[in-house]
């Protein structure tokens, strides 16, 4: 944004837009039933952050049990949910920060710090879930952590990367606002 001379007014909504995409990915991860799935036929197990479903054979009925009965299930859900709520707060703060004509760069650095805290909570939930799930719940066949779990990790990685962008953006305040004279590399003899 700074190096190639893109105008600040044209690029100011890129970071809030990326935060919005992170929020959408977080919603998919929270609502998705594909945290863990059977990899091969017959598909006998499917789990989300909230419940584990299995069926005895190919044509049988799915029976589901809540993961909230386990302490680790509540911990994984709570930590990931706290990270997601912090991400939503950062999204709202970013919209407010970039909507104001005079950009408050210290406010933006605070959003970056809050994104790092959100990433810590999200990663804690994403680590607790597979470790405790695979050790405490019996699994049959070949299982894999699937697409919704991947969306959870994508959200966490976006929180970390956007945290860096929000923290580093105030270092280029003068260049972004156009307060620096351009440097020319031509020198006259």
General form:
elongated
How many helix segments? 6
Determine the strand fraction and express it as a percent band: 5-15%
Secondary structure class reads alpha+beta
H/E series: HHEEEEHHEHH
Helix content: 55-70%
- Backbone CA Rg: 22 Å
Strand element count? 5
Low-confidence stretches: none
Strand order of the largest sheet: 4-3-2-1-5
Biggest pleated-sheet summary: 5 strands, antiparallel
* Terminal-residue CA separation: 33 Å
Roughly what is the average pLDDT, rounded to an integer? 82
Could you walk me through the main structural features you see in this protein, from its secondary elements to its overall organization?
The chain is built from 6 helices and 5 strands. A hairpin with a 3-residue loop joins strand 2 and strand 3. It has a 5-stranded antiparallel sheet with strand order 4-3-2-1-5. The mean pLDDT is 82. The protein has a domain at 19-32 and 70-167. The protein is an alpha+beta fold and 189 residues long.
In short:
With 189 residues, the chain is α+β, with helices and mostly antiparallel strands. Helices cover 58% and strands 9% of the residues.
Give descriptors for this structure.
single chain, alpha+beta, 9% strand, apoptosis, transmembrane helix, membrane, cell junction
